[in-house]
Amino acid sequence: MKMLTIYKRELKSYFLSPLAYVLVGFLLLISGYFFATFVLSTQYALMSPVFGNMVFVFMFISPILTMKLISEEMKNGTDQLLMTSPLRITDMVLGKYFAALTVYTLSLVVSLIYPLYLKIYSTPDFGPILTGYIGTFLMGAAFIAIGIFASSLTENQLIAGVIGFSILLLFWIVSWLGDVFQGTAKNIVDNISLLQRFTNFQNGVLSLNDVVFYLSVIIFFVFVTIMVVDKRRWS
Amino acid sequence: MNKLRLKYGSNMVLSIAILLGILIFGNLVLAQKPVKWDLTKSKQYTLSDKTKQVLKNLKTDVTVYAFFQNDSAKTQVQNLLDEYTALSKRIKVQFIDPDKNPSLAQKYGITDYDTTLFLNSKDDSKRQIVNSYDIFTQSQETGQNIFSGEQQFTQAIINVTEVNKTNAYIIQGHNEVNSTDSLTTFKSALQGEGYSVNDLNIGQAGGIPKDAGLIIIANPKSDYTQQEMNAIMDYLKKGGKAFIMMGAENGPLTEKSINDILSNWNVKIDNDIVVDPSRNYFMDALSPVPEYGYHDITDKLESANLATVAPSSRSITYKASSSSNISIQSFLTTSDKAWGETNFNSKQASHDKNDIKGPLTLGITITDSKTGMKIVVLGNDLMATDRVIGLEGNRDLLMNSANWLTNKTVQISISPKSLDYATLFMTGKQADYMFIVTVIIIPLIIWIIGGYVFFRRRAL
């Protein structure tokens, strides 16, 4: 229940400021552009390339969406208030996390107009579209977890944004190392790459391993965030 | 105070380490046995029952060296081979960049990129190369890309693990369809199914070799000698298997040998050319697309909706056998609008009283349950030639026939999966609207709402 209070407060702050609208609108602008140009130029009733572009754009947007979440509280000193209140830190972090996730999910919901278009003018294979949305959601959820972690590190929002983006970029390009290494090292690199894991979803294959991997990334970063915030209380 | 910090600090590091350990462990455990659901309509990423069966029955280890550079071809092959290794521990796959590791490529004589090599791990003389052009092809009709990796890989696994190869002989010496010029695809398809394929001149070989598992007769234009006839009859009486193909592309039927052989079972190749105005390929009445009868050879083709194209066919007439051990089954028939044109000179083909009335039989099987003899008779040989074998399901029909003859009915070939994407049909106006809605209207609405909220709040 306490988490819900934070969640509501945070969601309100997102939608009462222009930030969420600007970001969601921008994400949908680029996604819509990719969707329309791809579909109209190839005539294929496919969304898999669109998902790839959506997560790529969200990689730039998510640090902006999440950078203020915790650093702002620290700067304003409101974190002291939160910490001394009976609210548990876990509730606070989770509430903020789910608020940001809701903003992202809303833009995915609006983007459902793309498959609707495909349905009207063609008979698309909905399997890959469904898995694509699951993958896009999980990837975004992982981005947000990384972003909220970055936000807990500093009270400067801008620095939090840059840190978040750097971590995301690192996760993104780590698969390139796979071409350098051979054997086990390559295996490890391939397996921790967020990008590599995404192809199954794009292809229409729902793999429990991939879902668990994304959930692991999310759980790990949310947990570390809680730890970092908690550390502030006793230091 | 410092002590407290240390305590909390080490607790924090410890809890993060423990969580990380649990997560890594969980992921590693799951990686041992991947759980996947293929949600594509055509089951693009699911192995066929045939492959699963082959992998389940595998008795020897198979090493796979895939010589690929990093490109989309590699990804596709890797995805497929991952499915194999997930199902069978006996398959060991290694990807090799031929530029970085040229020695291995040299050892096995690999000269091209995107080549996959299958080796019997115990006996590496049993090996098969699968070239990139074997697995990446393009549909002749639609120009779409087709990936037939599973078919090729599964066959390669069968081939390198099979104990004995079945010998198939293509009979030559009577102006049959030339096996070196016209049957190259047919031959390599048979080799892919684990046959060792050779030409056979019965006279020179002094009969049909004892190791013959199958003889193939493709439209001889001159008669066999009496000795040759005796050799063939002798082979068949002892339970031999024969694949006889007799088409009408050379005009009237002048040679008698084949009908002499078939007369033993009251089967006759008619001296006609089949015209089917109702079921044919691209409005060409001389290229019938026959209907499938209920038969092991055609069942899978029927369910896979794979048609057969049989240009320049002859019809086959047969009488039901009176003997209990002989069974004759038809598996290809024309529509009832078809007829067998007997006048080869008539320019305007039309049905007249001399012609044979449809529906006509284009393919039958003759089996002798006593001796094990099996014969497939097709009123067509063009289907096996390089020009026509690629059309529709022709290749599958021929391979299924050969495998049925040699009692390898499990080895029904797997049809390649085409990346058959649904296409979109829109008028120019509809396309414009879609672009405007997705690119302009949707983001604009969101920004307008945002602007409204922002300015209203400021005004308050």
UniProtKB/TrEMBL annotation, chain A:
Q: Name one Pfam family in it.
A: ABC2_membrane_3
Q: Which InterPro entries match?
A: ABC-2_transporter_component, ABC2_TM
Ranges for domain ABC-2 type transporter transmembrane: 50-223
Protein location: Cell membrane
Principal location listed in the UniProt entry: membrane
GO molecular function per UniProt:
ABC-type transporter activity
Q: What is this protein called?
A: ABC transporter
Q: Which UniProt keywords apply?
A: Cell membrane, Membrane, Transmembrane, Transmembrane helix
Q: Does the keyword Membrane apply?
A: yes
From TrEMBL, chain B:
TM ranges are 433-455
Instruction: Work out whether the entry's keyword set contains Transport.
Output: no
Domain of life, per UniProt, equals Bacteria
Tell whether Magnesium is among the UniProt keywords: no
The UniProt entry, under InterPro entries, shows: ABC_transp_unknown (IPR019196), Class_I_gatase-like (IPR029062), DUF7088 (IPR055396), IFT52 (IPR039975), Thioredoxin-like_sf (IPR036249)
Q: Which part of the chain is the DUF7088 domain?
A: 42-125
Show where the ABC-type uncharacterised transport system domain sits. Answer: 169-364
Which keywords appear in this protein's UniProt record, sorted alphabetically? Membrane, Transmembrane, Transmembrane helix
What the entry lists under SUPFAM superfamilies is as follows:
Class I glutamine amidotransferase-like, Thioredoxin-like
Q: What is this protein called?
A: ABC transporter
